Amino acid sequence: MPERAYTEYVKSAFRPLVAATGRLTLLDQLFTKSIPKEKQEKLFRQFKILRLDQSQVITLPDGGFLAKLTGGEHEIFLVCSSSMNEEEGRNFVDDCSGVHGLIPVEFDESIFLIVAHEISGRFKIKDEYRSKARASDFVDVVDAEYQGHEVADLRDTYRPVLAFEIPVDCSLSGADIFDLALEILGSHAALRSPIIDDDIAKQVVALRGGQTCTSENLVQALIASQWRYSFLELYRCLEALYFFPWVRSFKKSTKSEMGVDELRKYCRDNLRWREKEKESIAELFEIVNSEKIKDREKHISVFKELVNNENSSRSSYGYRLYSIRNSLVHHENKDSIEVGMPGFEDWRLLTLYVAVFLEEFNTMYSRDFTQ
Q: Higher-confidence residue: 329 or 27?
């Protein structure tokens, strides 16, 4: 990455405030005062070495964000959320430091300028500074006596950000932003989507580390704006298991010493083999058959017809779930669902149902992946 241009980063920090005034010509007249000498070495070093990868930023439902900066031996975790009240904010800091071993640090001038420039679309000024009058009071002050703004004062016009150093001996050292997010979203409702209750959050977080359950899919399920999108993120984890029944059967018949996952990769690389979706989910439901799953099905209206028919096969539930999934990703399938689109409560129950199915799969077959 090329060396950062300090003046351009300062301009980026002023830009939303200037835009609020409507006087764009102000931007070229504004600047910041020199940083105190005792802080210059540290701040300029951070400004130079800390890197913010766009893939390491998550937008939260309230318009805030989670982000991670890295540089040298430093890892900085940032949290910006307008949904946490003062008490929730204190509890969050205590949890991050006491439970997860993170060290609270200042969201200092260098980190502020990096964030204001490099994720400007997600780092917002406070609501009061969006008014023309309030923004003008702060930036429309250029006259003969103007000596620049303090960077700290400029920072205070933005939504507050909590910053944490991740120690090198911390279990979260080296973790990507989705692993970090999953650690905290389960226990801090203010950061999740408002539709995600504690029961769902607990079930989703419990899938961490399970086969095909990536942290990214699980986090997206926790911050989704609608239940159907949360359902779809978990269904993607289910899709990644389509291969399993076929390769597991092939492994048994050939007496291969490869683990199922290794054998899958071999088949795909050397035989160009791909499983068929509809047949695969049917097979998957046949081999993941537990009372815990059946109990969930009794409470989901789109399964009512199947539950009431004692001859319903396990695969018929898989077909029904597959049909519902297709209604979300293929517009032409919306009118083809026999029982109609799920209602609000059904979407919640279906989301929980898929999470429980994945949990049962991991309990029954996780060892088969490597053995």
A: 27
- The SS3 of residue 121 is coil
Percent of the chain with pLDDT over 90: 72
DSSP conformation class of 79? E
CA distances from 369 to 2, 212, 257, 297, 362 (A): 43, 10, 12, 27, 10
Tokens of 121: 């679309």
Q: How much is the pLDDT for 265?
A: 82
Helices (H) and strands (E) in the chain, counts: 17, 5
Q: In sequence order, what E strands does the chain have? A: 51-59, 65-71, 74-80, 103-105, 162-165
Asked if the model's pLDDT at residue 350 lies above 60, the reply is yes
Please list, in sequence order, all residues whose beta carbon lies within 8 angstroms of the beta carbon of residue 247, skipping any fewer than 6 positions away: 260, 263, 264, 267
CA distance 175 to 192: 20
3-state secondary structure of 30: coil
Distance CA 213, CA 256 (A): 25
Spatial strand order of the sheet with 162-165 comes to: 51-59, 65-71, 74-80, 162-165, 103-105
Count the neighbouring beta carbons within 10 Å of the beta carbon of residue 48.
12
**pLDDT per position as a tens digit, 238-291:** 998 888 888 888 888 888 878 888 887 877 777 676 778 888 899 999 999 899
Would you put residue 315 in left (φ > 0), alpha (ψ -120 to 50) or beta? alpha
Closest CA to 64 of 31, 89, 47: 89
Tokens 């899709």 identify what position? Answer: 239
